[in-house]
């Protein structure tokens, strides 16, 4: 028999893990506690009494071309940013296309994962699962943990003086179901991450007043970016990545500042972040206009709660409040693992490349999808799965995590504490991380190499968006359709929106691209790339 791999969870990461195991000839068994695939994207349990909640209409923050699994583009008629029903539809097509369902055990909870006594030689695990009230124990050669890190809400009430005397209602954003609770109320949203801003915008349509409290501010990006193109297809390019990673800190800060303030001046809207924080931008299309029309007010950090009001830092007057929503992030936890396997010490955990625990004698357990880069999570989880499945199989020496002993010291990778996830995000440039893992398995595209053999593709890869198909051009898991998918990516973006074309219009975009491409190529040659 082949190598048996246990996959925990059938969300985005779990599906990618199962598929990559099959690609490498391993035998995956995926355990999913609910009755269906999709994980975070399946909000059925949030829809009560037949009324769709906010979550039924959640729109993805990354565009379809940048979010796709690398060998499975989204259908061209899908909108550019997807409501989660369509994202779920895509995941179901993916599961069907690669026959993943037969490897998933639904309604099965993983209770515990423990090393076997002979772990040092075999690297095997005992996995105890529970289904229908019955517990089963199995032996697996390796484990992929894909249960995500949105597990437990983080609500540090001790950080908010006076909360015990506050007479209004308060809850964590995880408990939020429907804007009806805000009808006619004065609402305070604490925290400025994506969910905080989304909830504030939705609440402001029915509430009497909405205030967002943020101590650090935030950069705001709109999905609709320069000249109407999706933000990530403009920002996540190899050229931009090269610029961002090679600029000195202050210049890098200035560049982000310049890009973000092109849409609106953040200082005038009370949003300008403080310089000392490296902030990951928040994505929202509505907030500036809601601030401009007075529906939402931005306030500094919370000082203390009174009976029916709150005080903010540097603001003498009290703000009357009826409901508080704490958007304070999540704690990642793995209740089925022993503490010693993934040590979380003072909010750090030692995971090599955010994937492999560094102190295991054998690299037979991996954590997928824990990283939160500024970019789509699907290609990242898939790339992690491609690497991990090859490490499990023992292919290629350059891919394996380092041996323990000294490793724990070397690779204490920083994973942010829950309530700081929006701010102190893993400072990993999305593209750099993907490239690093791709180089481990020999799937990183060579722009210079392609310049000689396929110059048009090379230019598209370097100056255009870094869409995931680039990682299927060569190496293990090479996909025949990758080149075509890259060269047609803008067609799939324009297809759902160019639904009315005025007479006599031609595509000036591609001719402009060609011109710019040749000029840049010339410059590149002159400056020796």
Description:
The protein is of the alpha/beta class. The protein has 2 domains: 4-151 and 332-435, 3-Layer(bba) Sandwich (FAD/NAD(P)-binding domain), CATH 3.50.50; 153-222 and 263-329, FAD/NAD(P)-binding domain (3-Layer(bba) Sandwich), CATH 3.50.50.60. Helix content is 30%, strand content 17%. Strand 15 and strand 16 (309-312) form a beta hairpin. The chain is globular, with a radius of gyration of 24 Å. It starts with a strand and ends with a helix. 40% of the residues are buried. The model is unreliable at 44-56 and 404-426 (pLDDT under 50).
Q: What is the topology?
A:
Layout: E1 4-8, H1 12-23, E2 27-32, H2 64-67, H3 84-97, E3 104-106, E4 109-115, H4 119-122, E5 125-131, E6 134-140, E7 142-145, E8 152-153, E9 169-172, E10 186-190, H5 194-203, E11 209-213, E12 220-221, H6 231-235, H7 238-246, H8 249-261, E13 282-283, H9 287-292, E14 296-299, E15 302-305, E16 309-312, E17 319-320, E18 323-326, E19 330-331, E20 344-345, E21 348-349, E22 351-352, E23 356-357, E24 365-367, H10 377-393, H11 407-410, H12 430-441, H13 447-453, H14 455-463, H15 482-487, H16 489-494, H17 508-526
Parallel strand pairs: 1-2, 1-7, 2-3, 7-24, 9-18, 10-11, 10-18, 11-14, 12-13
Antiparallel strand pairs: 4-5, 5-6, 8-19, 15-16, 16-17, 20-21, 22-23
Helix pairs in contact: 1-10, 10-12, 13-14
Family: Belongs to the FMO family.
Transmembrane segments: 509-528
Main location: endoplasmic reticulum
How would you describe this structure in keywords?
flavin adenine dinucleotide binding, 529 residues, globular, 17 helices, trimethylamine monooxygenase activity, 30% helix, NADP binding, flavoprotein, FAD/NAD(P)-binding domain, 17% strand
């Amino acid at each position: 028999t082949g190598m048996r791999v246990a996959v925990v969870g059938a969300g985005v990461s779990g599906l990618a893990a199962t598929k990559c195991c099959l690609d490498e000839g391993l035998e995956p068994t995926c355990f999913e506690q609910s009755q269906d695939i999709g994980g975070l994207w399946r909000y059925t349990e949030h829809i009560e009494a037949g009324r769709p909640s906010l979550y039924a209409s959640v729109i993805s923050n990354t565009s379809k071309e940048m979010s796709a699994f690398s060998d499975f583009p989204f259908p061209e008629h899908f909108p550019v940013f997807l409501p989660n029903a369509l994202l779920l539809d895509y995941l179901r097509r993916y599961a069907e296309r690669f026959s993943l369902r037969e490897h998933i055990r639904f309604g099965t909870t993983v209770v515990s994962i423990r090393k076997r006594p002979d772990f040092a030689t075999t690297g095997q695990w005992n996995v105890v699962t529970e289904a229908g009230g019955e517990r089963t124990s199995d032996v697996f050669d390796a484990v992929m943990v894909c249960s995500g890190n949105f597990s437990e809400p983080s609500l540090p009430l001790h950080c908010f003086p006076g909360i015990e005397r506050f007479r209004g209602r308060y809850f964590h954003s995880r408990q939020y179901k429907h804007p009806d609770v805000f009808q006619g109320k004065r609402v305070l949203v604490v925290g400025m991450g994506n969910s905080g801003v989304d909830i504030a915008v939705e609440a402001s349509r029915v509430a009497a007043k909405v205030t967002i409290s943020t101590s650090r501010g935030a950069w705001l990006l709109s999905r609709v970016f320069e000249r109407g193109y999706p933000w990530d297809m403009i920002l996540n390019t190899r050229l931009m990545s090269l610029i961002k990673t090679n600029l000195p800190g202050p210049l890098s800060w200035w560049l982000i500042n310049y890009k973000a303030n092109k849409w609106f001046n953040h200082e005038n809207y009370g949003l300008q972040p403080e310089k000392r924080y490296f902030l990951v931008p928040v994505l929202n299309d509505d907030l500036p206009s809601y601030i401009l029309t007075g529906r939402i007010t931005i306030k500094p950090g919370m000082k203390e709660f009174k009976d029916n009001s709150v005080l903010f830092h540097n603001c003498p007057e009290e703000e009357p409040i009826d409901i508080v929503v704490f958007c304070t992030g999540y704690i990642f936890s793995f209740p089925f693992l022993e503490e010693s396997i993934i040590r979380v010490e003072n909010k750090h955990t030692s995971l090599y490349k955010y994937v492999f625990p560094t102190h295991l004698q054998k690299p037979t357990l991996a954590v997928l999808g824990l990283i939160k880069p500024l970019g789509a999570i699907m290609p990242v989880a898939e790339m992690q799965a491609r690497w991990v499945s090859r490490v499990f199989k023992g292919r290629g020496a350059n891919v394996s995590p380092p041996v323990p002993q000294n490793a724990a010291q070397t690779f204490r990778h920083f994973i942010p504490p829950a309530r700081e996830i929006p701010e102190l995000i893993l400072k990993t440039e999305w593209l750099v991380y993907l490239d690093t893992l791709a180089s481990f398995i020999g799937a990183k595209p060579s722009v210079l190499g392609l310049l000689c053999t396929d110059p048009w593709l090379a230019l598209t890869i370097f100056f255009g968006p870094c869409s995931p198909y680039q990682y299927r051009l060569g190496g293990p898991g090479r996909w025949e359709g990758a080149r075509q998918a890259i060269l047609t990516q803008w067609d799939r973006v324009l297809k759902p929106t160019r639904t009315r074309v005025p007479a006599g219009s031609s595509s000036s975009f591609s001719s402009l691209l060609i011109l710019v491409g040749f000029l840049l190529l010339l410059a590149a040659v002159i400056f020796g790339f």
